[in-house]
Amino acid sequence: MKRRKLVAGNWKMNMAPSEAKSYASKYPRLLKRDMEVNIIIFPQSILLPILIDEFKNSGIKLGSQNCHWELQGAFTGETSPQTLKQLGIEYCLVGHSERRHTFGETNVQTGMKVRTLHQLGMTPIICVGETVGERERGQTEDILRTQIDSALKDADPKKTIIVAYEPVWAIGTGRVATPDIAQKAHAVLREYLKQRGLQNTTILYGGSVKPDNVATLVSCPDIDGFLVGGASLEPEEFANICLLTLNASR
Ligand code: 13P
User: Fold this and answer.
1) What is the total count of domains within the chain?
2) Which residue in 79, 112, 126, 200 is a FRET match for 187, CA 20 to 30 A apart?
3) Mean pLDDT of 76-81
4) What atom of ligand 1 comes closest to residue 227's alpha carbon?
C-alpha cells in the first residue's frame, strides 16, 4: 500500500489570534486544491475554536499540540481530549520533545494519552527522538524502541497512529539530520512497527525542516513527510514545504 504523504505544522506557543486569522486567509490560496498531501496545523489549543471556522473547506486539518490522558476532571491548565473531540479535532501530538524535556512528560504518560485518544477515535501523532548524548552513547535505537513500546502499551491495534521522529538535537537548532541519519532512524522505526503489524504507519521527520532540505529528506524510502516547527509559522514557507513534499518522487 502506498503511504500518503503528510506535512504537519507545529506552531508551538506562537501566533496571536489576528496573525492566525491572517495566515488562514492566505494559506489555501497558496496550494493547489487537489494536492495529494495531507496537511495538519497544530496551533495553541486556545486558537482552535477560532481557526476551525477559518480553515473550514480549505482541506487543511487542525490538531492539538497536547492533551491530558483523562477525559475531564480536576487538572488545572490541561486540555481535555473529550473537548477536542467535541470540537471536531481528529489529531493530537503526544510526547513532543518539549513536553518530555521541558514539562517532564514520561513515557508512561505518553502511553496513557495514546490509549485515551484511541478510545475517542482520534489519531495520536507519537513524537520520539534521542538527545545528542544518547546518540553519542550509541543508544538511539534503544531509546526509539522504548518510546514506541511505552506509547503503544495500551494502544488499540485496530486504530491509526502516526509517528514523528524528531531528534532532540535537531529541534529549533538549525542542525537538520542528514538524510542518511534520518533514513536509518526511520528504517529502525519501520522495522519495529512492522513487528507489530504496523508497517504502513506514516512516519514523519521533524527538526529544522526548511524548504531547502525537504527534497533530499523526502526522497528517503521511509520518510513520509514532515513535522515542521519554525518554518510553519510563515505561510509561504510552509506552503513551499508542502509543495516540495508533494512533488518529490521516490
Ligand atoms: P523546528 O522545525 O523549529 O526545528 O521544530 C521541530 C518541531 O519540534 C516540530 O514539532
Assistant:
1) 1
2) 112
3) 98
4) 9
